[in-house]
Amino acid sequence: MNSNLGSPPAGATGSYSPAGSVFFYRLIRLLSWTYLRLFHRLRVHGQKNAPSEGGLLVVANHASYLDIPAVAASFRRHVSFVARGTLTSSRLIAWVIRVCGGILVGPGESDRAALRAIGERLDAGYAVAIFPEGTRTSDGRLGEFRGGALFAIKRSKVPLVPVGIRGSYASFSRHHKLPRPHTIRMAFGKPLAPGAPQATEHIREAIQRSLATLEGIR
């Protein structure tokens, strides 16, 4: 079995290939899709807005532990996730993130290391997903963006794809001990050009628009 997640994709400008297992990533993505479709009736809108190749920074709101598997299940390409170091308290979750080529920022590590890792993946033509709020929302609303994410968005040299996720808060918020069978819907917004002025404000507005679009879908 190939020990990497594949050779650099088309459009790559670097030789980086995220460490991990092709088999486990695809298996986990399949299991995530199956679980989310059966238990949470996952619906995805606007997938065509996500480029199929080349570096891509995916920016999504964060309300639940279900957000990572939902984004992974909705992409037809490999996605590297940037996750909080507090997840290392769960050895299983930490292992899954690492084996799938994610970026796990451990306790005491600086944002600089994570930003460097993000840059390596984007330069190599991979998709990277960040949740700029840095933590799950406590009330279901889109929170403030954290410093490291703001820097990554402003300095991005690849397209930015906004993703709105609705229903994951009701399904499994930080106030729930176990997931509940609530519908989860996602909407991919149109890519924003890299280096655009007020990129942070634009990506935030785009996520809000995606969430508003989902509110009217039943």
- Order of strands, main sheet, comes to 1-7-6-2-5-3-4
CATH fold title? Glycerol-3-phosphate (1)-acyltransferase
- Tally the beta strands: 7
Strand content: 5-15%
In total, the number of domains comes to: 1
Q: CATH homologous superfamily - what is it?
A: Glycerol-3-phosphate (1)-acyltransferase
Major sheet: 7 strands, mixed
Please report the first level of CATH classification, the CATH class.
Answer: Alpha Beta
Radius of gyration: 16 Å
- Oligomeric state: single chain
Q: What spatial form do the alpha-carbon principal axes imply? A: globular
**Average pLDDT over all residues:** 84
For the termini, the CA-CA separation is: 42 Å
Low-confidence parts lasting 5 or more residues at pLDDT below 50? Answer: none
CATH architecture: 3-Layer(aba) Sandwich
Helix content: 25-40%
- Global structural class: alpha/beta
- What is the count of helical runs? 7
Order of helices and strands: HEEHEHEHEHEHEH
